[in-house]
Amino acid sequence: MTYSIAIAGKWHTLPSVTMAYRQRDGSIMHKADKLELSIIVLMLLQDVLNKKKMISGSLSRYYKPLSYCRKRRTHLKEEKYHKYIEACNGYDNNILKEIIDSEKKIKPKLKINGLQIISLLCYLFYGFFRKAYKLIDHR
Q: How far is residue 12's CA from residue 104's CA, in Å, rounded to a whole number?
């Protein structure tokens, strides 16, 4: 995820540590449900797709949240998630809108199906090479 954030924004390094961060019990990562966390991750995917850098490496990380949101697309219309849906309206690649629209329209459905298939292939591809590397490294 750090890599995806780096692609989406401007990244630079400092010679020394200037700040350390840790999650607290009251943070969004602890209070949010699984769908809300998946939505937040897909918002990062939108940034990655808009930047058009290292998309295949990034897509492998987004297969599970994409699948989860897609399975629960009817829940995306609930009031609790409106702030995320509205925040994505300015994106060129509005994945959340495409997921919601895929329920009734064919074009968004095909786009999300394609994105999900490609992300699955990337997920399997990178997973295979991670395991192969571990096997080779331990010999």
A: 43
